[in-house]
Design goal:
Elements: E1 2-9, H1 15-23, E2 35-42, E3 49-56, H2 59-66, H3 69-78, H4 84-87, E4 92-97
Antiparallel strand pairs: 1-3, 1-4, 2-3
Length: about 100
Amino acid sequence: MYVVDSTVVVPDHKADELIQIYRNRSRLVDQADGFISFQLLQNDRKPGELTVHLEWASKQDYLNWARSEQFKKIHELEKQYPDQELQGIVPKVSKYEVVAE
């Protein structure tokens, strides 16, 4: 299994707005080959720190998704957020190979 986490830090007062965006996400990734799950995590001590946690069957499945037209479409939509504070946020991305369960 392969895990990709994308963490962003937004002002605390913007956290709920970003959570709503993810609750209403397009779900295009859900149909990608090898996709297992999506979770949006909120740090319980820092409400403005949110992490998108994606699980994939393999690294290759993730790479195929990351090179797809659907991936590009989703990330173009992110650039069009009406809220300027959310529009320019760059996530810290971490990628992991699961080595034991």
